[in-house]
């Protein structure tokens, strides 16, 4: 395999290490970036490209491994690894988040950039054929970074539909690298791509920068150590003001070199009015435009497809609203009604209640002589009688259906349009429209959503989103139980619950956005075209997520139940209940039995909600009590898995601070609500 | 002592402005100096230099003199008109497009008015869409370019938000203090010279740049300036 000689080998930045540690979703395929740099001799291949061009599908076709594929930018938030056999050789393959430039803006772009610059590697640049210009600006950057690459012009079908034709031979000649047209979803062109990967070369193109930049580059290349192969790329990063690269260089090089570089950059900046980074990216854009003009022709489109127009309607200020409502109603019907009620009823009452539980009881009764061990399996907090049905009969159908709906919306490309529709609302929360994606995902699983907060553009936005997820966004499991409990009450109960929740997240979001340093980050989001969903894609994606749920979340259910069991046997639960009871009984006005629901809520939010559900079924909660308890449990502390994710993403200090705040806030709001409702003599 | 061309132009401008205010003819010993430019060569009110300049201008036939009274001659008027036009166009350029403070707008315009040639003036005027008034509310004398395109009153370069939905234009420049944002726009293909189409403005701004569709916040609509396609401009 062909590799360029000296490579830029910078130690990966701190943030990328925290991003890619193992236990994120599909954990086994994640790899610490620090682990990568050491393995020099294994040939490797990186699949990269602009967001939403089909990198993950290409990765999947090359390796046979499943990576989450979806039609909205930002799905691959960490690096997925697999291996492919090319020409009889096993090659390691990495799938990266989408990038528009090696000059990284968001954390996920940083992950991809560090991988590209940190490894001796060959690059398969996947691109959207109908958006050649942007692909080529990235190709130019990859060439500058000295990476041997192959350009894959994917989505040729969509390009053809839009009457775009590209002279791939000519383009290949101009760039000096192989250019392969493909349609990944139909597997068209993949074999050809496989064949040329091994002949990857460094592109023979150069960008003509303005004189100020060229002069500065020349001076910087002189200063940088001769052993570095990509001095020009480094110089460009420095001039563009890439803080991350500058920090890394500062750690590696002599202060004298750093001083010289700083002086050169400052001198160049003095000679121009605009930021240097802008001059650089505009020069690349010009060069890419020049290339595009030579190889691409577009015939006028006579009529737009109705599907294309549907994409516009989905973000229309007027038509977008009924579409949004339609989507929500569909989701409510599928998740809240079909899954949370019929599905749960069937699984819980029939499958578990009639068949499995009696069997477990019979087996355990017969096989285990000791009473306490029996209780561990089939007692009140038994693993088989509590954890198992909760995990598989209550939570799984709800989460599974939610994942299916979310996957479908993702695949169609509705989610970015949702971001447009939600921009106003997110502004109320001190965020921008992009944050709606983690927030909506949080309605599925807050743990996953906390991780997805990475797609946001600033730390400030990530912190606010993480806090709001921990505070006021119920996950699908919890939501299912909550909606089931509210279903038996007048609509006012639902209204109060929703109203209080919205009020709390708006107030907290606003306050946080004022307290946290930094400005509101500008809303800038790419909207992919609406596509007909591919059912197999949606199903694979849903199964992948369910697998993740079973692997990551279900063990925590068992752990949580076990902890409860131990607390119960040792009598600690009674002690906690006694300590917590005054708070629950006098401040929240709930029956003493609810205490255990809240205690379990520490372990999983939905466990808590399910505990309340049981109380309500037994007729132990009045209408007002139901609403107060639901508001409190919704706002209550994040579940254990989410808490650990918060620690991983934001650090111990911040995670603890947030968890403490959320705990206090939940009790405060719950107690106040009770008093207001009592004062107004509301009956529900 | 030599008389600077600039001083002559300053006086021409003064006479024009005074005439607008109904002050013509002027008393050469009591000029309304509040109407004078201050930079770069402040004219000493009623100083010797000024009297000399007036003499030269009378000799050249730019001014008509009647005792102490002076006013623009038939030769002087078109020249004064040109100077005033350059001054006020510069003010519009600096103030409206570049958002420069009134003080520096004034002083810069006073300098620039002397160096713009006819061709550049026409280009600036067209660029600004033949604006009828300056930021102070005074009328900008029309030039040749304005007469040929009297039908079009809208400026050629406008903030993105001023386009009608569906209109195509090309990006002229982006005026923002958010540098990182600017760079990201550019990597997404939104840069000077690129074609842009406004798709919608509510609930967020959506534009199409090439084959890329981008959602932006409403502030961006005021920060991105586009050059309208002249054939496309609605009447």
Largest sheet of chain B: 6 strands, antiparallel
Average of the residue pLDDT scores of chain B = 80
Number of strands of chain B: 9
Number of domains of chain B: 2
Largest interface: A-B, 40 and 31 residues
The CATH superfamily of the largest domain in chain B is known as: Winged helix-like DNA-binding domain superfamily/Winged helix DNA-binding domain
Model description:
By secondary structure, chain A is of the alpha/beta class. Chain A folds into three domains: 14-202, P-loop containing nucleotide triphosphate hydrolases (Rossmann fold); 211-298, Helix Hairpins (Orthogonal Bundle); 320-679, no CATH class. Chain A has helices spanning 14-19, 33-38, 55-63, 107-118, 132-144, 156-161, 168-175, 190-197, 211-223, 231-240, 243-252, 255-270, 276-295, 306-313, 320-367, 371-378, 383-412, 414-428, 436-444, 446-452, 459-472, 476-487, 491-515, 535-569, 572-587, 594-601, 605-617, 623-635, 640-650, 652-679, and strands at 44-49, 80-86, 89-95, 122-128, 148-154, 164-166, 179-181, 201-202, 296-298, 524-527. In chain A, strand 4, helix 5 (132-144) and strand 5 (148-154) form a beta-alpha-beta unit. Chain B is built from eight helices and nine strands. Chain B has a six-stranded antiparallel β-sheet. A three-stranded antiparallel β-sheet of chain B has the order 1-3-2. Chain B starts with a helix and ends in a 7-residue tail after the last strand. Classes of the chains: A alpha/beta (684), B alpha+beta (235). At the A-B interface, helix 5, helix 13, helix 18 and strand 10 of A face helix 7 and strand 8 of B. Strand 10 (524-527) of chain A pairs antiparallel with strand 8 (212-216) of chain B.
């Amino acid at each position: 395999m062909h590799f360029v000689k000296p490579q830029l080998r910078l130690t990966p930045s701190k943030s990328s290490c925290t991003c890619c540690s193992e236990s994120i979703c599909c954990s086994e395929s994640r790899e610490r970036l620090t682990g990568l740099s050491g393995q020099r001799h294994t040939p490797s291949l990186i699949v990269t490209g602009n967001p939403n061009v089909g990198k993950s599908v290409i990765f999947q076709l090359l390796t046979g491994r499943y990576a989450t594929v979806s039609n909205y930018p930002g799905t691959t938030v960490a690096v997925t690894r697999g291996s492919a056999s090319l020409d009889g050789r096993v090659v390691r393959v990495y799938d990266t988040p989408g990038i528009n430039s090696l000059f990284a803006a968001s954390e996920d772009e940083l992950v991809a950039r560090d991988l590209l610059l940190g490894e001796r590697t060959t690059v398969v640049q996947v691109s959207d054929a109908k958006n050649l210009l942007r692909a080529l600006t990235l190709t130019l950057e990859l060439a500058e970074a000295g990476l041997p690459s192959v350009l894959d012009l994917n989505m040729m079908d969509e390009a053809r539909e839009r009457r775009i034709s590209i002279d791939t031979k000519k383009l290949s000649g101009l760039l000096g690298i192989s250019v392969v047209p493909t349609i990944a979803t139909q597997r068209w062109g993949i074999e050809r791509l496989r064949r040329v990967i091994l002949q990857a070369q460094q592109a023979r193109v150069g960008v003509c920068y303005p004189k100020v930049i060229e002069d500065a580059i020349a001076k910087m290349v002189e200063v940088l150590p001769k052993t570095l192969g990509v001095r020009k790329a480094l110089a460009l990063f420095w001039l563009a003001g890439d803080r991350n690269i500058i920090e890394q260089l500062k750690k590696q090089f002599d202060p004298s070199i750093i001083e010289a570089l700083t002086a050169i950059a400052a001198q160049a900046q003095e000679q121009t009015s605009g930021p240097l980074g802008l001059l650089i990216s505009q020069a690349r854009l010009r060069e890419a435009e020049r290339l595009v003009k030579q190889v691409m022709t577009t015939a006028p489109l006579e009529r737009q497809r109705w599907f294309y127009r549907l994409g516009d309607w989905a973000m229309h200020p007027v038509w977008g609203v009924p579409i949004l409502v339609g989507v929500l109603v569909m989701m409510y019907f599928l998740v809240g009604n079909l899954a949370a009620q019929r599905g749960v009823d069937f699984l819980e009452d029939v499958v578990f209640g009639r068949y499995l539980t009696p069997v477990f009881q019979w087996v355990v009764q017969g096989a285990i002589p000791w009473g306490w061990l029996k209780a561990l399996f089939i007692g009140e907090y038994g693993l088989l009688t509590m954890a198992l049905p909760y995990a598989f009969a209550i939570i799984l159908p709800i989460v599974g259906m939610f994942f299916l709906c979310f996957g479908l919306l993702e695949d169609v490309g509705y989610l970015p349009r949702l971001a447009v529709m939600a921009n106003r609302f997110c502004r109320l929360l001190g965020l921008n429209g992009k944050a709606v994606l983690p927030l909506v995902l949080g309605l599925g699983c807050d743990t996953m959503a906390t991780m997805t907060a990475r797609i946001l553009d600033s730390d400030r936005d990530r912190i606010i989103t993480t806090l709001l997820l921990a505070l006021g966004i119920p996950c699908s499991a919890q939501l299912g139980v909550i909606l089931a409990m509210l279903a038996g009450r007048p609509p006012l109960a639902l209204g109060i619950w929703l109203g209080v929740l919205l009020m709390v997240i708006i107030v907290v979001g606003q306050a946080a956005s004022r307290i946290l340093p930094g400005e509101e980050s500008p809303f800038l989001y790419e909207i992919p075209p609406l596509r007909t969903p591919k059912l197999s894609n949606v199903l694979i994606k849903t199964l992948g997520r369910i697998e993740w749920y079973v692997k990551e979340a279900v063990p925590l259910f068992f752990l949580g139940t076990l902890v409860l069991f131990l607390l119960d046997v040792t009598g600690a639960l009674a002690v906690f209940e006694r300590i917590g009871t005054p708070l629950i009984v006098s401040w929240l006005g709930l029956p003493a039995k609810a205490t255990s629901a809240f205690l379990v809520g520490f372990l999983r939010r939905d466990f808590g909600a399910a505990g309340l559900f049981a109380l309500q079924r037994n007729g132990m909660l009045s209408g007002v009590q139901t609403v107060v308890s639901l508001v409190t449990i919704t706002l209550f502390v994040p579940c254990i898995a989410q808490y650990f994710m918060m620690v991983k993403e934001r650090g111990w200090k911040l995670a603890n601070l947030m968890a403490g705040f959320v705990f206090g806030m939940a009790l405060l709001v719950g107690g106040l609500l009770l008093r207001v409702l009592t004062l107004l003599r509301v009956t529900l | 002592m030599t008389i600077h061309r600039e001083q002559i132009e300053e006086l021409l401008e003064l006479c024009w402005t005074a005439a607008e205010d109904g002050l013509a003819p002027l008393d050469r010993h009591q000029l309304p100096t509040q109407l004078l430019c201050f930079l770069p060569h402040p004219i000493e009110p009623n100083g010797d230099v000024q009297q000399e300049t007036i003499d030269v201008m009378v000799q050249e036939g730019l001014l008509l003199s009647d005792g102490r009274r002076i006013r623009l001659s038939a030769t002087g008027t078109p020249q004064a008109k040109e100077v005033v036009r350059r001054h006020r166009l510069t003010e519009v350029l600096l103030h409206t497009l570049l958002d420069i403070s009134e003080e520096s707008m004034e002083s810069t315009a006073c300098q620039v008015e002397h160096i713009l040639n006819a061709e550049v003036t026409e280009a600036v005027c067209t660029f600004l869409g033949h604006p009828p008034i300056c930021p102070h509310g005074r009328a900008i004398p029309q030039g040749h370019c304005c007469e040929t395109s009297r039908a079009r009153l809208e400026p050629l370069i406008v903030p993105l938000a001023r386009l009608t939905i569906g209109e195509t234009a090309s990006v002229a420049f982006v005026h923002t203090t958010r540098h990182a944002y600017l760079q990201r726009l550019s990597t997404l293909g939104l840069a000077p010279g690129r074609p842009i189409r406004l798709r919608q403005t509510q609930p967020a701004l959506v534009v199409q740049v090439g084959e890329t569709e981008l959602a932006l916040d409403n502030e961006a609509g005021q920060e991105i300036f586009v050059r309208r396609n002249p054939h496309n401009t609605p009447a």
